Amino acid sequence: KNVVNYQRVRELLIQGAVIVLAGLWIYSPTYHGDWLWDDDVLLTANPTVQSGTLAGLLKLWLNPDGIDYFPLSYSLLWLQAQFFGPQSTGYHVTTILLHIVSGLLLWALLAEMKVPGAWTAALVFTIHPVCVESVAWVSETKNTLSLALFLASCIFWVRQDDRQPGPTRERLYLIALAFFLLAMFAKTSVVAMPVLTLLYAWWKRGGATMQDAVRAAPMFLVSLVLGIVTIQYQHGRAIGLEELPVGGIASRIAIAGMAILFYLATIVWPVNLLPIYPRWDVEPPQAWQFLPGLVIGGAAWWLWTNRREIWARHAILAFGFFLLMIAPVLGFVDISYMRITWVADHFLYLPMIGPLVLIVAGVTTWLETRADRERSVFTAMAGGMLFFLAVNAFFYAISWQDEEHLWEHTLASNHDAWQAHNRLGAKKLAKGDVDGAYYHFRHSSRLRPDLGETKNNLAITLMRKGQVDQAIKTYEEALAASPSLHQIRLNLAEAYGTVGRFTEARDAYAQLLAIDPGNVVVRNNYALALFKCGEKEEAAEEFRRVLKLQPDFKAAQQGLEVVVKSLQAAEEKELQPAGE
After folding, report:
1. In 10 A of CB 232, how many CB atoms?
2. What is the DSSP letter of 414?
3. What is the pLDDT of residue 332?
């Protein structure tokens, strides 16, 4: 018995090591990866996350400045900021390790549920290329963290469901609830878990009872409250006043059906993956765009009519899991990502587990019915497929090592990705490649003429090219498109000053000061514009206000000296006798 136990432990250790090593190898190109996309908003330029104070940590829970209420994920970033500072390596290693932990937890969960091929399914998930976006992008630490906590909750839920009523069962139940609450605080993508517990009860016992519903009730309450908070944050902060190009209910139905089919195809054949996929036009929707929804509905009805068959019950659980977890991002509820595209790999990170496990379990069960020679051939083919997934994921991870690789990879397949042009233009401008930046900003402005941010970037490049008049015109268009973006007004005011249009510059600075009176840079520029307009007394007063706010502001000190000397010279000239 000890020999058998030793062999089993050794086997488990080897299997676990394979998952760990595979994950570490696939994501090795991103160990020292750069900051990507909105990492600045979420982390590097987020003063609360970077604060390092307990007051800042408390703010992340009570009133975070971000576009989402994911306090546990923000707290993890806050903690990492204290250890890793501005260097990205530690953050990347953390999210990679969280992903590997999720692979191991998925293995444990499937083994607890006695699902065939549990280890293989966990390995496939760990190496699947669709996971790259969630793992290689630090902003999606919320995905890797929430999934690990969600899987832990599922493990304890399954364990308590197998126990007879008593203290042990209640302890396991409370632990499951605690992990679910933590998962929701990490990211509300697990909001459908209460319904999932009822689906699990139906799969296991042939039906969900009132007791199952009562035990899931606390989860329903948490999902309701935090789900509403998430929607409020999305509408109030992430989307704001921007109108999403979604359309009416017919368009949303078309989006949902096509998105489901797209996601299922991506799970099975994960090639040509992109951070921004081309967005299909559904305004108005074409008749053929409803076909995927009809096919999916027909398949669901067929499975339900065969629900007494064991294979159908397994399929209903797998696809039910998938649909429950993907439902919040199918387009029926507005989310900020819809301003870019309808689908994204990071939305699939958790939902993909259902179909993936069903496929692996089905193949494993089928192989057990084959003869030894036939089984060896198909096992070798399966090994080849695993190798293909791992290599594909490794090379896709290379594209995520920095923004230039990422956006060039995107534009090679989706040249109309306006945000890819916008981000790549910013990178090229930062490196001094003005012509390259102009090319990409021109395309981003063409693709999204309604956005002030794209036109603002184009205008900045025009200024760098010396085309000031065209830059001013573009700034004015940008301000008309997005009047709430104060940086555009500041840039426009500075451009006015460059060509000597000081009256317009003065008025623009005055509007900015009405919004932010404590901005010493803007007030200093306002004082300078007043001086250029001949309003010297007012300019002197504004320079003094700047120095009152910031006594060591050298530009204001020099400006005040110039204004005072000018006023003294004018006064001396007035006192001179006539004729001198």
Report:
1. 11
2. -
3. 86
Q: Which residue is listed with tokens 């993890």?
A: 76
37: left (phi over 0), alpha (psi -120 to 50) or beta: left
Q: Are 340 and 454 in contact (CB under 8 A)?
A: no
Nearest to 481 by CA among 68, 371, 415, 473: 473
Whether the per-residue pLDDT at 580 is higher than 50: the answer is no
Helix and strand element counts for the chain (H, E): 28, 0
Report the residue count for the chain: 580
Distance CA 451, CA 178 (A): 42
3-state secondary structure of 286: coil
Place of tokens 């958790």: 350
Output the CA angle 133-139-144, nearest 5 degrees: 65
CB atoms within 10 A of CB 553: 19
Q: How many CB atoms lie within 10 A of CB 412?
A: 12
Radius of gyration of the chain (CA): 29
Three-state DSSP class for residue 358: helix
Tell me the pLDDT tens digit for each residue of 466-512.
999 999 999 999 999 888 888 999 999 999 999 999 999 999 999 99
CA 293 to chain centre: 27
pLDDT tens-digit series, residues 248-304: 899 999 999 999 999 999 999 999 999 999 988 888 889 999 999 999 999 999 999
Query: What value, to the nearest 5°, has the Cα angle with vertex 108 and ends 105 and 111?
Result: 150
CB within 8 A of 184, min separation 6: which ones? 146, 190, 191, 222, 223, 226
Dist. CA 519–CA 549, nearest whole Å? 9
Q: Which pair of tokens denotes residue 568? A: 């003294």
pLDDT at 237: 64
Closest C-alpha to 265, from 313, 213, 322, 304 = 322
Structure token digits, residue 528? 């300078």
Longest dimension (CA), the chain: 121
**Whether 97 contacts 141, CB under 8 Å:** no
8 A C-beta contact, residue 531 and residue 567 = no
pTM greater than 0.85 (yes/no):
yes
Contacts from 562-565 at CB under 8 Å and sequence distance 24+? 562/531, 563/527, 563/531, 563/536, 563/539, 564/540
Q: Which residue bears the tokens 């690789």? A: 405
Q: What angle do CA 249, 254, 257 make, to 5 degrees?
A: 125
In the prediction, which pLDDT does 248 show?
Answer: 84
pLDDT score at 52 = 85
pLDDT of residue 563: 85
End-to-end CA distance of the chain: 119
- Averaged pLDDT of the chain: 91
